[in-house]
Structure formats: structure tokens, C-alpha cells
Design a protein that fits this description.
- This protein is mainly α and 490 residues long.
- The protein has 24 helices and 3 strands.
- Strands 1-3-2 form a 3-stranded antiparallel beta sheet.
- A hairpin with a 4-residue loop joins strand 2 and strand 3.
- Helix 7 runs antiparallel to helix 8, helix 17 runs antiparallel to helix 18 and helix 18 runs antiparallel to helix 20.
Length: 490
């Protein structure tokens, strides 16, 4: 039971462990993506699903386990339990509907709002997300405080996130951050920081990495991290939900925020906004390898940065939100490392580039394909040895063609060279431009002085303005200031 032992170790170490539907979804992703852990992950998911109220989720999980292990006892769905749980769910739903109807007859707004929230939470737990969304929307009509509107909006965002509907989720969270009238000072920070993290997740899923990084960096660790001395605690409850257990753990915030920043920010920004951040540092302490990778990149240790990220590629490929983005994130970071590395040189051999940036996947290109059957084993060996160089050459060619790498490939000498530059010419051109601008400014000022001396200046109608014109006329015109219509010529 390696997975269960992993969760137990995290809880004993004081780290937040995700619960409920999100945990089941992550286990299913592991079961469908990692053959060595597939059976164990899906067995754990089946047990977790059977403890909940979503019968369809339980049946789907059993079907997934049956597809890879038909003889497993847990792969055969317990239809007796499913029928019993369905009847229980219907009875509980009818009870909540009756209670809500009674609240409406009594015309008690707060009771109606809470009854609608209970009905929405119940529909969410059973997997009926459309009904949950409708119940949450009905809370608005009976809200009496800005906090009630904020809670409704967060519930709607949670329903959108669990369905991976990122555009509606981002829309709800944007409304929450611009709520009017605003929340009370005691409530606003908690709601805002949850909204920052969820909005960052939505932007990350939409591949808006910079926006995602800026949002994750604004999240408050007190809302997400475990309380000191309370192993397994998960920060504060907001809108009746412990968000680190329901959607995002603080470890997720650290990984998602760190990778988004690494993809989208420069070295100076990473140092100032990430490594020197007093708030995000608390998240990075939970995932030290992400902090090391960022520090390596900032300190121009690009090979170590890439090797650190590569060591955790497998883990992130099993993440429910990162899985479709890992390849793109790693490719962008690798390209940034190559560009930053070459900035310090005027010429680098391709052999050195291949040593610094070994290909992650070695695949023979068109140039290495055998064209005849008469090639010798020595030629094959030479081709195999040159494969990393050919791979890095193809990668560099793509960067040069896209305009990301200002360099040229010297194929005969097997070098990567920077384009020729003439610093003397650039300095002279800059000096000429400054001289032309200075001459233009002087001519305009002389024209202004001559117009004033010739009496062509239009004076203001009253004495006070006339005094201001006399005081500011020539000098103000020379400075391009106000005071005369002629100042527009300057």
C-alpha cells in the first residue's frame, strides 16, 4: 500500500492531504497514467468513492479498475450498495427540498439562503453539478451581506473548477475580487487569497503563465498551510469549505506558482518576486526542489535547473492539473535556459551546447537516417555519437528561426555564433540622433523668442492672467510649459 503509506506520511509530517472528490480524481489520473501504480491507485479510489455519495463516480471507478484488473474483487461493483445509497440520496434530497419549502413559506431570508446552500452542497457531493450551480445561484436573492454574495460566488467557482470549466471559473473569481459593496475588512483577505489561488489555477489551465504566476504569488500561506503544532490541519475555512483539502493544497500552490513564474519571468523578476517574497517563501519551503530549480536559474546554473526539474517530471505527469502542461512548461524553460546561457558568449561549439543541454528524448532526425544498406558499423557508431549534437542543432535552428535566439549556426565549424555587431557605429548613430533632436529643440525655442519679440503673442484677457503671462511667457515657452498659446510651439 505505497499510496496509502504516502498519504499517511504526509499527514504525520503536518502536510495537508487532499480529501473527497479531488483526491479520487487524482487517484484515477494516477491509475490511468502510471501502469506500475494503476491497480493500487484505482483500488484506493474505489474505496474512497464508496465512502461518498456519488454513485456514478463509484461505478466509473469500478469500471476503470475492471478494465485493467478484471479479477480484482473491488472491480466488481457492489450494486446492492449502489441501490441503497441511491435511495438514501433521494430521501435526503427530498428532505432538504421540504425544509427549503418550509423556509420559503415562513419568509425567513437567512433560513432560505442557508437552505439553498445546504441543497447546493448536497448536490455537489452527489456529483449533480448543474443542480448544485442552480442552488447556489438562488442564494443571491436572499443574501443580506456582501459576505453572502462572496460565499455564493466561491461555491460557483468550485463547481466550475471541479468540472475543469476554466472560463466560467475565472469569470466568477473576477467578480469576487471586484465585489461591490466590498467585504468587511475582517473577511476580505480570506476570500481574496482563496480567489487568487483558484484564479491562478484557472489561468494556468488556460496557459496564461504570467497571469497565473502573479495570482499565485499573491496567495496568503495562512489560508492554505497547516497550523503550527496541528498535524493534518489545513488552514482556515472559507465559505464553509477547507480549500486546501477540497481543491488545492499548499504544495500545489508552491509547484504551480513556481513553475508558472519560471516559465514567464526573467531572472531579476524571479529573484525579486519569488525568492525574496516573504509570503511565497512559505509555500516554497514545502517544495524545496522548486525553490532550488528557480535559484539555479537565477544564478545562471542552467544545467542544474533542468536536471532538477527533470527529476520530478514523473511526479508532475501524474498531477491532475499539470499533466497536460508538463511538456510545454519544460520546453519553454529549456528554451529560456539556452537563450540565457548563450548571452554570455560570442561563440560556442555545438559539442559544448550538447553537453550543457543534453536532449531529453533522443530521436534520430532525418539527417541521421540510413540511406543505403552498405553503411559500415563505424558509420553507424559515428551517427550515434553525433545524435546529441544533431538534436541540439535542430533545436537551435528552431529557436533562431522563431527569433528567440539572436545567433547563427556555423555548420562547417560546428559552432553557434552571435551575429556580428559594430558598437562604434551604434554609438555614432546614437550621438547623431541626439544632436538632431537638440538642434530641433533649439530652433523651436528661437522661433518662440522671435514671435514674442515681434509682438505676435496673444495675451490673456484679465490682469491676473496677464501677470502670469509676463512671468511665464518666455521662460514657460522655453520650458514647454503653460501660460501662453505660443507655448504650444515649444
Amino acid at each position: 500500500m505505497a499510496l496509502q503509506a504516502y498519504f499517511d506520511r504526509r499527514a504525520q509530517a503536518g502536510k495537508v492531504v487532499v480529501r473527497g472528490r479531488t483526491r479520487i480524481e487524482r487517484l484515477v489520473v494516477i491509475g490511468t497514467s502510471c501502469p506500475p501504480l494503476a491497480v493500487e491507485a484505482l483500488r484506493t479510489a474505489v474505496r474512497e468513492a464508496k465512502q461518498g455519495k456519488d454513485v456514478d463516480l463509484y461505478l466509473d471507478t469500478c469500471q476503470a479498475l475492471f478494465s485493467i484488473s478484471p479479477d480484482d474483487p473491488l472491480a466488481k461493483a457492489d450494486m446492492t450498495w449502489a441501490d441503497t445509497r441511491t435511495k438514501q440520496i433521494k430521501a435526503e434530497g427530498d428532505r432538504l427540498e421540504a425544509e427549503l419549502k418550509g423556509y420559503k413559506n415562513n419568509l425567513i431570508k437567512e433560513s432560505i439562503r442557508m437552505g439553498s446552500e445546504d441543497l447546493g452542497n448536497f448536490a455537489y457531493s452527489t456529483g449533480d453539478f448543474p443542480s448544485a450551480a442552480k442552488a447556489y445561484v438562488r442564494m443571491r436573492d436572499y443574501a443580506t451581506l456582501p459576505k453572502h454574495i462572496a460565499e455564493m460566488t466561491l461555491h460557483q467557482a468550485r463547481v466550475a473548477v471541479v468540472q475543469h470549466q476554466w472560463m466560467p471559473a475565472a469569470s466568477h473569481l473576477a467578480k469576487l475580487r471586484t465585489l461591490h459593496p466590498p467585504l468587511a475588512p475582517a473577511d476580505k483577505p480570506k476570500f481574496d487569497h482563496v480567489a487568487y489561488a483558484l484564479a491562478g489555477l484557472a489561468e494556468l489551465a488556460g496557459r496564461n503563465y504570467r497571469d497565473a504566476a502573479m495570482l499565485f504569488l499573491r496567495a496568503d500561506p495562512q489560508v492554505f498551510t497547516a497550523a503550527p503544532g496541528q498535524p493534518g490541519s489545513a488552514g482556515e475555512m472559507v465559505a464553509g469549505v477547507v480549500w486546501p483539502r477540497a481543491v488545492l493544497t499548499p504544495n500545489d500552490v508552491a509547484v504551480y506558482g513556481g513553475l508558472s513564474a519560471l516559465v514567464s519571468m526573467s531572472r531579476a523578476e524571479l529573484q525579486a518576486r519569488v525568492l525574496d517574497s516573504s509570503t511565497f517563501r512559505s509555500f516554497l519551503e514545502l517544495e524545496p526542489h522548486v525553490r532550488r530549480a528557480i535559484a539555479f536559474f537565477v544564478n545562471a546554473k542552467y544545467a542544474q535547473c533542468l536536471s532538477t526539474l527533470e527529476a520530478y517530471r514523473g511526479d508532475w505527469l501524474l498531477d491532475v492539473y499539470l499533466q497536460p502542461l508538463v511538456g510545454e512548461i519544460f520546453a519553454v524553460v529549456r528554451q529560456k535556459c539556452i537563450v540565457q546561457y548563450f548571452e554570455a558568449f560570442s561563440c560556442v561549439s555545438l559539442d559544448e551546447m550538447a553537453r550543457q543541454f543534453p536532449p531529453t528524448v533522443l530521436a534520430p532526425s532525418a539527417g541521421t537516417t540510413a540511406t543505403t544498406s552498405t553503411e559500415t558499423s563505424a558509420d553507424n557508431a559515428a551517427t550515434a555519437d553525433s545524435t546529441p549534437v544533431l538534436e541540439i542543432r535542430s533545436e537551435l535552428r528552431a529557436l533562431i528561426e522563431s527569433g528567440d535566439l539572436p545567433a547563427r549556426l556555423d555548420i562547417p565549424n560546428n559552432n553557434l555564433v552571435s551575429p556580428p555587431s559594430n558598437p562604434r557605429r551604434e554609438v555614432l548613430l546614437s550621438a547623431l540622433e541626439d544632436a538632431e533632436e537638440y538642434e530641433r529643440t533649439l530652433r523651436l525655442r528661437l522661433s518662440k523668442i522671435n514671435m514674442v519679440a515681434a509682438g505676435l503673442e496673444v495675451k490673456a484677457p484679465n490682469d491676473e492672467a496677464r501677470g502670469r503671462v509676463v512671468g511665464d511667457g518666455v521662460g514657460g515657452g522655453l520650458r514647454g510649459g503653460k501660460g501662453t498659446r505660443g507655448g504650444r510651439w515649444g
